[in-house]
Design a protein that fits this description.
The protein has about 425 residues and is of the alpha+beta class. The protein has a domain of about 230 residues: FAD/NAD(P)-binding domain, CATH 3.50.50. About 30% of the residues lie in helices and about 25% in strands. The strands form 4 sheets. It has an 8-stranded mixed beta sheet with strand order 6-5-14-15-16-13-18-17. A 6-stranded mixed beta sheet has the order 8-2-1-12-20-19. It has a 3-stranded antiparallel beta sheet with strand order 3-7-4. The longest helix has 23 residues.
């Protein structure tokens, strides 16, 4: 250990993408991950075109992404009776230069992990090692690492990048008086099941009202029987005045605990109760976020991903933003070196903008159209144009895309975040 490495707390999607970015620009780094054995856990997530672009520019291929998911073709919102409220093409079919992908979260993490080990070496990720704090001087930072065997280690580095998620110990040290995790009242039950394809065959479908809905999208191509792996989210909003009712942030649940909320949701194209009951393993999650903080930087330490900006998943861009964070931070190192100045430039570019996105997602993000429909007609309508005009619908979607950084023309015309072949000079030592 030379002390010149950039230390990364957390081996999730953000931390591993950060490591690959640093390797691409010639900066040595090491990742410290709490779990002792990385496995492909989780369910489906969406990667927006801006994040897919960055993955391809890191060296991944379309074939790599096709193995863990499939390109999304449509985004659609449907009313309580399955009637159409809004739909639009997505990814390349919408005019982006890059696709949007629906993937299995755990498979994406494993893809990144394998690439890190391949490019940086088998010791680049230290498993069973939690960064539980830090100290720093003007010239260096020290990560305080607790290993799973009880051993404590102080690891020197040039910078510390905290990608340690919702329960970030680094963020807690930066902001010891931060408010508790914020639960807005929505509870999500999540799982995957085999079903025939729906609509385009690769559609993201939001069904119901702002307080009572289903979200469905496939994360695999059809198998030999013509069935896809359908990722689904069932969501109900409760009174949250008493706070989150469980001590668990995710727990496996029995079907009887939630399927009754969706009785009668049967259409000629989908039997929701049958889909839910056919799912082997179902997990419950509160829809949570954290209040934005004024800065993601403390000297030689910076936050990325959920450590910086855990947000409601209504915009399908939490993982995408974690990838973007690391790429922007790498670009700032190209300009300012492996220095606190690079962290400052990163913080100034993203913190305020993404903090506004946290609050926008708390207001339902692009699903705010369902809020508007709910307010005007309780989710019951025959012709959506009688409830919300086409102009209103288009504006809601356009505003969100601009806020989330994937407006089509802006993204297509933007130069690469990391120019091909760009390298950072040797990290400073003092």
């Amino acid at each position: 250990m030379t002390g010149k490495e950039v230390l990364i707390a957390g081996g999730g999607i953000g931390g591993l993408a950060m490591a690959l970015t640093l390797h691409q620009i010639g900066v040595p780094c090491r990742v410290y991950e709490t779990v002792e054995d990385l496995r492909p856990l989780g369910v489906g997530i969406n990667l927006q075109p801006n994040a897919v672009r960055e993955l391809l520019e890191m060296g991944f291929t379309r074939d790599d992404l096709d193995r863990i998911g499939l390109p999304a073709r449509e985004w659609a919102l449907l009313g309580l009776r399955g009637q159409e409220a809004y739909s639009e093409p997505r990814g390349e079919e919408a005019g982006y230069n890059w696709p949007q992908y629906a993937v299995h979260r755990g498979e994406l993490q494993m893809l990144l992990y394998q690439k890190v080990r391949e490019k940086l070496g088998p010791d680049a990720v230290v498993l069973g090692a939690r960064v539980d704090g830090y100290s720093q001087t003007d010239g260096a930072v020290t990560a305080h690492v607790l290993h799973s065997d009880g051993r404590k280690e102080d690891v020197p580095g040039s910078l510390l990048i905290a990608a340690d998620g919702l329960h970030s110990a680094v963020r807690a040290q930066m902001y010891p008086d931060q408010p508790p995790i914020q639960w807005g009242g929505a509870v999500m039950w999540r799982g995957t099941a085999k079903t025939p394809p729906m609509r385009t065959g690769s559609s993201f479908i939001g069904l119901g009202t702002s307080r009572h809905r289903m979200v469905l999208y496939p994360i695999s191509a059809p198998d030999a029987d013509g069935l896809v792996t359908m990722n689904w989210i069932a969501e109900v909003t409760y009174d949250n005045s008493g706070g989150w009712r469980s001590g668990d942030w995710n727990r496996k649940v029995e079907h009887s605990e939630f399927v009754h909320h969706f009785e009668g949701w049967t259409f000629d194209w989908l039997d929701v109760p049958a889909l839910l009951n056919s799912t082997a393993d179902v997990w419950e999650y509160p829809m949570i976020d954290r209040e934005p903080v004024p800065s993601w930087q403390d000297g030689r330490v910076a936050l990325i991903g959920d450590a910086a900006h855990v947000m409601y998943p209504t915009g399908s861009n939490g993982a995408s933003q974690a990838i973007i964070d690391g790429r922007v931070l790498g670009a700032k190192m190209l300009e300012a070196g492996v220095t606190p100045a690079a962290l400052t430039a990163y913080d100034e570019e993203l913190c305020e903008k993404v903090s506004a996105l946290i609050l926008r997602n708390r207001g339902a993000g692009p699903f705010s159209l369902l809020n508007l429909i709910d307010d005007r007609c309780g989710g019951e309508f025959d012709n959506i144009d009688d409830v919300v005009t086409p102009e209103e619908r288009d504006e809601i979607m356009a505003v969100y895309k601009r806020a989330a950084g994937f407006a089509i023309q802006t993204l297509n015309e933007a130069p690469p975040t990391i120019p091909p072949g760009a390298r950072v000079p040797e990290p400073e030592t003092a």
